[in-house]
Each structure stands twice: as structure tokens, then as C-alpha cells.
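Dear colleague,

Following up on Tuesday's group meeting, I ran the structure prediction for the two-component complex that the binding team flagged. I've pasted the input sequences exactly as they went in, so you can double-check that nothing got truncated or mislabelled along the way. The C-alpha cells for the whole assembly follow below. Feel free to forward this to whoever is handling the docking comparison.

Inputs:
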Amino acid sequence: MWNTIILEPMINSLLYIYSLLGHNFGWAIIIFTALVRLITLPLTIQQMRSTMVMQEIQGSDRYKKMQEKYKKDKQKLSEEQMKLFKDVGYNPMSGCVGLIIQFPIIIGLYQSVIRTLAATPVQLFDLSKLLYPFTSASLIPVNSQFLWMNLGQPERLVLDFLPFAIPVLTILVVITTYLQTKLTTPASPDAQSQSMTKMMGLYMPLLLGYFAYSLASGLALYFFASNLLGILQGYIMRRIRERPAS
Amino acid sequence: MSKATIPLKKLFLPIILGLSALLLVGCSSRSIMAASSWPGLTVDEDIAYLAFNEYVRAVDLSSGRDIWSYPPEADDKITFYAPPAIGQDGIVVIGGYNNEVLALMPNNSFVNVLWSFEEATDRIIGGPVIVDNMVLVPSADGRLYALDLETGKPVWDKPFEAQHALWSSPKIQDDRIYLTSLDHHIYALDLETGREIWQANLSSTISDSPSLTEDLVFAGTFEGIMFALDKSHGEIVWQFKADGAIWGSPVILDSVGFFADVSGTAYALDIASGKELWREELPGSSAASPTILEDRVYFISETGEVTAFLLENGDPVWPSSANMEGRLLADAIPTDFGLLVPAMESECVVFSVDPSTGAARCIIEPK
């Protein structure tokens, strides 16, 4: 089921893009990530809008007053919050729907990159079962060399004049993840949300940085491309939000 | 109650991130962080040499007990999957996913390392092959290394280099090496110098070793085509399109070649013309080469079955397949202890199948 709906279409699309790009798997990952981001853009926008509306609500006097008034009665506070959401026409689940739909796509994207790289015999054998009849088997194995990287191995840049190797992509993933989290999760007036945002800003770069350092660099490239596009999206959304109404 | 909700909310994000991490890497990380392949098995009389995960083991097939294992202490960064090569004087050559080749000299339950070769820059996936006083080692770095069996020093001026990884063992016949690569080519090399005699582009990846007869060399491709090439010059004599990708080498007996594909179909072809003699459906995909014993041919399915057919007409021998737990992707080896079938993702590393009844039992358990 997972293979049929998610993995097979993604792997075969990835290979199709790879064939169009002159067998450059690095660019195929970047273009494929951009396409998937484009397809899921409406969901991302919906999720971001939901976050913004929530922040406006949290900044309103009515919200602040009820926080103060019912700070010792969480149940009553919750009831009042729901009333407020209903009054302004906000569905607290609206942001989650986008996330829930995007989540399997992100997982599938990651798995399709790793499975297409097929660095071991078992992975290559499994890949042979996921190809559509019209996908040319001559594309396999994919050329995993991209710039100085072997996309099937963890990335390290070795410079002659340095006694150690530099994990360039890991550093880029950490920085861009931090920036993306900052950009797409604007400051909230609510203390609890602020705490969550702070934790997210700390955990996400570390977690993705760890993956980028220890797993195949094809995955790190996907993280980096995805983050850059996320930063771009976040920037555009912020500009739209800050633009004065005509 | 309100006191309980605050810490839970604080834990929410790390929990979600942790679960996401598990989902992200759950299916694939093992294969990247730790090498993943099927067991490499070689049998010499009543001793099985098994390379699987962190150990290479010599197992007494009559008792199922380990005679020795290497290394003494497991290191999860060093794994072994290439079938070991056994020399005449008991020397065992192994290759690891740490790119290293080792020559071991067992002494009862102890193992001495005679030499190590560390010039390969990628994993040793295909099994080394010993020819006289030389060992040929295919590497995923695309090079075929020829090493002196006694010293581990390179024999050729330089290793033969293909355009992509070598994942299969070379085959030797009449002072020539026949070698397949993931670069879509099959190569014929001079055994003494390692120089290329000819190469043939088969347009798709070749994962397993070639098969040889007196005049022809056979190789199946990822595109599902079985090729027969002229051994002298590498010209294509015939080709046969199978239903799915071909992984395992064909097995030749007299004038008939047998192989199976990933779609789960077994074939018998006339090797002179490439004409199909019979085909039969298997219970699942097949990555292994078939095995011939007396008047039967045995096919291994990934899904855990061994199926036997009569060589003559492809009629099934057993009413139903022998069924084993786990994934069966490696070739079976015929021995006095039955047909030995390596397994992965199983509670048993090697099964023994009775070739006459199809009954299976575990003969080598995990360490």
C-alpha cells in the first residue's frame, strides 16, 4: 500500500527527472524536492495562515484577558478559548490537516531518495521491484557523484591544507534548519507557544544536523534544498503578511 | 490535572520529533549506517564458512557448532557479507564492508591474521576467488585487485578498473577472468596481467557473476535480458527477454540453462539458441541462482520457499514448496547435509533443505 501509493510514484518520478537532467542525481534531488514543495504549497500556505490567525488571536485583548481571568481554571479557560475561536471563525485543527497530509509525503520523499541511491545489494534488489515497466532499468545504478560528494555516503570535504575533513552539508543543514524554523514560526505573544518555538528552534537543527552528518549525503542534500525552499516560502509569506492592505 | 498538562505539553515537541526521526530513518537507516546484505556462505567438505553481519564463522555442519569466529569481539562498524574464499592449506580470505581484505589462518578455535590489504576505497561485497597462489578481490570501488595469497601484496602492475562498482565474484577459465559490473559491462581479462581482452556493454546493470560454458559466457541484467556472448570476442550470440529483472546467474547443465527473475518466474533455455524450453511460476521474487542436483533444479524465492522442478520438463516435484521464515536472497549450496539455504531477517541464518522431500530445518543459528 505504502509502496504503491507513495514510494513507487516518487521513485519513478525521481528517476524520470534524473534521466532528463543528464544523469545528475544531485540536481534530480533538488528539482524533485522543489516539485514536491510546489505540489504541497496550498497545504503549506493553509498551515501558515492558520499559524498567523492563531497569533493574531493570541495577541488580542480578549484572549489576554481570559488568560488572566481563568489562569487558575484551565477547563474554563479552554471553554472560553473555544468560544473565541468559534466567534472569529477559526478552526484549531485547520493547521494540523496540512501537516498530517504533508507528513507521509516528507517521509516518502526521504525514503525514495535513499532507495533510489541503492547503496547495498538488498536495496538494489528491492529497487528492482519498485520500477514501473516504462522506467528504463538502464538508469540503474544512479550516478551518485555530485560536486565533491558521493550521495550514497556521508559527506565530508577534504582540503589538502587542513588536517581534518569538514562536514559542509551538515553545517549548511543546521544553519538553514535554524533559519527556516525562525522564519516560518514567527514570535508569539503566548508564553507557552514561545517556549515551544524555542525548543523547536533548538531541537530541529540538531536532529537534522545529526542525520546529515551520519546518513547518506543525498539525504542531507534533500534537507538543505527543502530548507532553502522553506526559507523562501516563509520569506514570501512574511512579505505578503506585512504588506499594507490597499 | 492542570499540573499534569504542562509537562506533557513540554514533552510534546521532543516526542513528535523523536517519532518523526524514527519514521524517517526507520526503514532505511540500517542499510546506510550499518551495511545490509544477505549472508555469504562457502562450504568446504563438512565446514561452512559464513560471513554475516559482524562475524565470519567456521561452523561444523555435523554439530552446528562454531569452530572459530572472527573477529573475537564484534565491532558493529565492521561487517562481513562476501562469501569467504578457502585456500588449499586452510587459509581463509575474507573481505569486509570496512573495505579491508584479510587472510586468516585458523588454528583450532583460534585465528591468526596472516595479512591485511587496505587499499580498496569501498566495500568488499562480492566474494574473493583463489586461483593458484593468487586471490582476486572485487571491490565496490570498481577495482579488481589481484593479491599474492601468501603475502597480500598486489600481483598486477595496477588493479583492473571498471566504471562502477564490482559486486560479484569473478569467474576464471583458461587463463581468463570473466567479470561483471554495475557499469552495465561484462569484461574478459588476462589472468596474468589483469589487462582487458574485451568488454561488452549489455545496457543495464549486471549484479551477479557470469556463467561459463566452453564457448559462451552468460549474464542476466537488471533490464530482464539474459545474454549469451561469444567467449573469444564478447559478441552477443543471442538474447532472451524475461518478465522481470534478472539478478542470479544462470546455471548450465549440458545444453540447458536455468535461471529465475524478480517477477518470480523460473526459466529453462536452450543455451545454443536461447529458445525457451519451459517456464514455471515461483511463489515469489528470486535473486539467487538455481541449484541442480541429480534430475532436479531447485529455485529459491525471496519469500522463504525452495521449489523443485524436474530438469526435463519443469514439472513440480513437491506438492508444495518448502517454506522457511525470513528473506532468502543468497544462492543455495548442495552438501552432504542437504541443500544449504542462507536466510536474512530470520531466527535461522542457514537452513538445510532435504532435496528429496523439501523438508527444512535450521542448521546454523545466529551467533
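Chain A has one domain: 2-242.

Cheers,
M.
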